[in-house]
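Crash report, auto-generated. Payload:
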Amino acid sequence: MNTYYAANLLIFAGVDIIACLALNLQFGVSGIVNFSFIIFQAAGAYAAAILSMPPDSNPDYSFQVYFGGYQLPFPLPWIGGAFAGALLSIPVGLVVLRRLRTDYQAIALLVTSIIANTVINNARPWLNGAAGLALVPQPLQDHVDTSADTYQYLYIGLTAVCVAIVWFVAARIVSSPFGRSLRAMRDHELAATALGKNPVALKTTMFIVGGAIAGLSGAVLVGFLQVWAPSTWLYPETIILFAAVIVGGRGNNVGAILGALLVPVGFEEVTRLLTRLNIGPPNLIPALEWVLIGLFILGFMWFRPEGVRPEPRRVYEGAPDA
Amino acid sequence: MSLYVAAFGFGLVSTSVIALAAVGFTMQFGITNMINLAYGEVMIASAYVAYYIDSAGLSIWLAMIGAALFGAVFSFPINRFIYAPFQRRGTALLGMVIVSLAVSLMISNLMLPIVGYFSVSYRERFSSLLRLGPLALTVNQIAIIFLALAVMLAIHALLRYTRLGKAMRATAANPTLARSCGIPTQRVIDVVWLITGALCGLAGVVAALDSDSFTIASGAGFLITALAAAVLGGAGQPYGAMLGAVVIGMVTELSAAAWSPDYKEVVAFAILVLVMVLRPQGLLAKRGALAAAG
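Recovered output after restart:
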């Protein structure tokens, strides 16, 4: 039982780290306030699910309705998840990022997130509506015994590989000349435009990259949870990730990881412990958890907007002293 | 055909509900430069206040007044003690959006242990039906329409013909200049939050009454329709919000008659997307959502 608990914690931490790195690339580095982040994670999870599940005509799966069902072998559903996240980012990015003012972009994305959830919730034939998908196959379940403890270690290992890949990509983007353009755009869009950078192209690119990583995080998550439903990707989930990036330090990848460990993982654990104490009405503690996350955001925005680990000041050779 | 006439009647009711919500929201943005994403949650909180007054045996109209008062008293400190200090500190518009979303999250979760997850309805949600040919509306619905009309006229009179309204418009156009001309902008903004808070409270009860039953989760839906109407008409423009309410109210109800009532919010969203692609500044505004060209 204890291995299970530890595995749970590590895998959730891995998924949150992947998601926070992606959100940091979008929000921290490029200044895109992607309030619909969670729908890209959801797209990845749904894609990974239908790519690995058998068709819904299969007797074991006939209690749910969904399209597809391709039973692809292991790495393909995860790659497909990342691909789905990227694919969904293209239309959303093209509509939202092109002409709107940044605060309107944020609102449009928030509305998109709420509406996407409503649509999937009401439209049963696509992805089984409000009940969601269940019995999603676990990676490699045909080759290894998924009930054994060793499978937990295997899954932790797979998650760690994904974290490492995402970390590598994020670090490369941040330190590259492209990352410099992104920061220039974030800090002074007009000046960056004047120097010949195309903010719409930069933002759309980061929207797609972030969407792909978010999709991957969803695929990793659904392979472990084996269920995915609209109630798992309501818009407040995005706010938790924002809280993590703000607390950790926007623009800093290490900060994003720190934030992921502090906010989503930390809060989840504290809530679990407090719920065991049985204080007050049953939904009091989870509700207070959200209130606390709100207070965390307000507190950090007020006292330390740069976060626990601020973005490092980058000084380049030949630059005049500021 | 009679189906569409009936839908037109419902469209009038929806328009009234949305207009009440959207005008307050857009005034907050236009005059105090605050996109208040907690608006939907304040609406729901007020709807619950009205629910408690209503279940205590008082009339729903009395409950509406109570909710409007609550909305005003609740919105005022949110601005005075959270939004305004952040704005004074120079938090960017984008940061303020995040702040208001955090506030929205906190309000709904502070309410949750008190009101619970269950859906509730007002005692007087059923009232007698009045018919005019195929047009059939309940007394409550007709009252909502007239209430909205009265409020819209009152706002028009306030903005056009009073000194306060003039001061509000001046503050919206250029706060620094308004202050230099001797307008106490701080006090104007306080009054704006009291008025829009009352509108928000009223809109919450009306929206809850119109949708038969409501839960704590209804706030997001309320916010979306108000947002859609406000952005459609050109954010910050009270008359634009009224126009946006007419468009969204009519189109959603007619589409519900022609298609399915499950997707009312989706239709509102589709209109919003179309406007954002084709005319981001909104129907009435000159700038609105269009990217600031510097």
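Post-recovery validation: The mean pLDDT of chain B is 87.
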